[in-house]
Design brief:
Largest sheet: 9 strands, mixed
Shape: globular
Number of helices: 9
CATH topology: TIM Barrel
Order of helices and strands: EHEEHHEHEHEHEHEHEH
Helix content: 25-40%
CATH architecture: Alpha-Beta Barrel
Radius of gyration: 17 Å
Bound molecules: SN-glycerol-3-phosphate, calcium ion
Length: 240
Amino acid sequence: MTLILAHRGFSAAFPENTMRAFVEAESNGADGLELDVQMTKDGELVVIHDEKVDRTTDGKGFVKDLSAKDIRKLDASMQKLTTKESIPFLKEVFDWLAGNKLVCNVELKNGKVPYPELEEKVIALVKDYGLEERIILSSFNHYSIVHATTIAPEIETAPLLAEGLYMPWVYAKAIRAKGYHPHYLSARDELVKQAIAENIKVRPYTVNKQSEMVRLMNIGCHAIITDKPDHALQIRMDLG
Ligand code: G3P
Ligand code: CA
């Protein structure tokens, strides 16, 4: 069965990367979440997609230049809610995960800002919460993936691939990743099938079109990452 991972939570209907979006993802049938992690100037892990807070909050500036206290004051509801939504700290999400069974794909957002010891901090938190079996670490920064795999081989890792790659399963194995997360347009049927045959998990992103959901479920992707977990669940039920 193809798992449904809610991209930044149920972000089609709720403000992305907020607790509200994560809770709504679960209640709308997602098997798991995808979320993005950056780091404050005082070393706190926060769940936000961009390096800057400008697009998704009422604040301004780089996450790396703000303290955890500064971050806590911001509103991330993006005019989609009447109530304030904070940028979550990663440990708040893990507190909540401790009470359910969701899978969580943590994307390390260290492709532009080189956050010191981001991998060590995320991995320490995963271990504190005993979530090793339910976390997948991904990143567009493949050096970070290799580093994470080296220091915590028990936690699954997956490189993100924005472009097509020749034999991505060979690449995944070469960097000791158990899977890879391709853009859905480069997840061609024959490549996904070959990767699965090679025991490599494929979780394409960001799959919001019905036809693509059907295609990727039918060829046996391990998961899809989608803004619309409710649609994906309906399609999975229709496919039986
Ligand atoms: O993890 C899949 C996807 O989230 C990667 O792209 O820009 O949405 O973080 P982005
Ligand atoms: Ca992401």
